[in-house]
Amino acid sequence: MHRTPAVSSSSGVSAKDAFRRFWPYTRGFRRWLVVGALLLILSAACEVVAIWLFGDITDRVLAAKDLHAFWTPALIWLEVAVLTGVATFGGSYLTALVGERFLLRLRDAVFAHVQGLSPDFLDNRRLGDLMVRLTGDIEAIEQFVASGVIQTVTAAVSAVFFAGAALYVRWDLALVSFAVAPLFWVAVRNFTSRFRDAAVRERESSGTITSVVEESLSNQALVQAYNRERAERGRLHREGLSWLEAKMAETRLAALYEPLVQVIETVCVLVVLGFGAWELTADRVTLGGLLSFAAYLGYLYPPIQSLGHVNLLASEATASAERIVELMETRPAVAERPAARTRAARRGRVAFDGVTFRYPGADRPALANLSFRAGPEELVLLTGPSGSGKSTITKLLLRFHDPEAGRIRLDGVDIRELSLATLRDTVTVLQQETMLFPCTVRENIAYGRPGATDEQIVAAARAADAHDFITALPDGYETPVGQRGRLLSGGQRQRIAIARAMVRDAPVLILDEPTTGLDASTARRVLEPLRRLMADRTTILITHDLHLAPEADKVVTLRPTSTVDDPQLARLP
Ligand SMILES: Nc1ncnc2c1ncn2[C@@H]1O[C@H](COP(=O)(O)OP(=O)(O)OP(=O)(O)O)[C@@H](O)[C@H]1O
């Protein structure tokens, strides 16, 4: 419960790397990016024209007190304003659309990748941290890669427009004001690295908070039963404090950045106005010319500020990109062969030949040189002390891992030759802890076979001895089972799981301690449906409880391994 997060924060993904890595996800809608940027540029060009019209009206209408000269520029200004509105709307809409599409695609890809990783990988992670990676981190990358590109392009082009217009109106005044530009860059450079550090801490804290909430609430019964509410609140509060500190560091930097830029901007405007006033008194510039010049400068600073802002976004995005790249670079424990078979004989002959397996990082193998066979309609009982590797056999047969030595065959074919989907379609596992989804009884039974008919579902429930209790539920088959099926009793959950396995109808069945946690009478009730489920299949029954041993065709007893040379051989009854 209190595992440390496996977070790498120093792999050092630069903004350029992040961009290069995630830019391909914009494929297919780049033209909309271009159209969006063009529309926003058009809107900036319209602003240039509007300011020019403002200067013109000042000189030719206001200063000259000539109302007749007002109507033509006023009408043009109105048209330009409408065009600006349309272009801004179109540009903003397309930018958002492209950004959201990018987000959708990236999230789908990261989720699909995580789904391909072995369940053990997820067991070693904090779920909350993974959830934040799939939400907040992906959004930060989008802000930089998709929206960031449009923002950069439009800001750069607008800056050129307004600077060009300012130069056109008064080149000497413009040069004076541009001299201040390097100050902006000094400010931006100073801020970005610090902002990035704060962003890394903020992202990590955000992951930890979600993890604490998820872990604590999903173990609510344990927390209450052991009076640990205060300790859990304390844990969340401590994590919340570190998040607050990181967030405040980020906010301080962002909030300092804005006024600093504004001061630089004000200095610049004052210099220009002072210089302009002197020029005005010497009649070297008109009032309209000076005002429109000042307006161009006023419009020039936001795009420059926005370029600085993209820099801050980039810092935040690299912190998130690091966390996504780390996830994407985790390779699945098993790989499907390119020409893997998609058809299996489905007779259900299982053979373990000299299988040795060691969990990554473990010093002792979990299984050493294990061999046994299980044939159609056979019941093989697998027993042995705790930790002797019984559940590991299930993981290897489902190919969550590959053996280090030896091989596993299904109907004579090495399971590495089969596609993962084909292999897993052939094997049904009934776990020690029955896993149900928080949906209805019907959906849970149909889970392993989407499209199962109502008749098949009811027939499976009857065979699993579950139909009667299901129909007695408030909404029958439509009753929700709650988080992990906790609205049902242990025996009811197990019978729904048996019905789910029946509907799936796979030739190989693995029962991992199917009666653990059930009292003797409930366990007896589950046994009959289990026998019906086992009929006509290859069944590997993992159990400590040997009272089914007389029914078994074979009993395989595992011993905890010490070395690979210490074979765990099948012992026949
Ligand atoms: N994901 C894992 N990573 C590292 N080691 C593991 C992992 N899962 C299991 N092990 C180790 O592998 C060995 C075999 O575990 P396994 O769960 O197969 O035993 P088991 O016989 O099913 O035990 P039990 O009867 O208690 O369920 C144990 O020593 C265990 O600590």
From TrEMBL:
Molecular functions (GO terms)? ATP binding
Classification via Pfam families: ABC_membrane, ABC_tran
Which CDD domains does this entry report, sorted A to Z? ABC_6TM_exporter_like (cd18564)
Q: Which residues cross the membrane?
A: 32-54, 74-98, 144-167, 173-191, 256-278
How is it placed in the membrane, per its record? Multi-pass membrane protein
Record has Nucleotide-binding as a keyword: yes
Key word Nucleotide-binding present = yes
Q: Which UniProt keywords apply?
A: ATP-binding, Membrane, Nucleotide-binding, Transmembrane, Transmembrane helix
Coarsely, its chief localization is membrane
Span of domain ABC transporter? 350-572
Q: Which PANTHER family match?
A: ATP-BINDING CASSETTE SUB-FAMILY B MEMBER 10, MITOCHONDRIAL (PTHR43394:SF1), ATP-DEPENDENT PERMEASE MDL1, MITOCHONDRIAL (PTHR43394)
Q: Protein name, please?
A: ABC transporter ATP-binding protein
Organism per entry: Actinoallomurus vinaceus
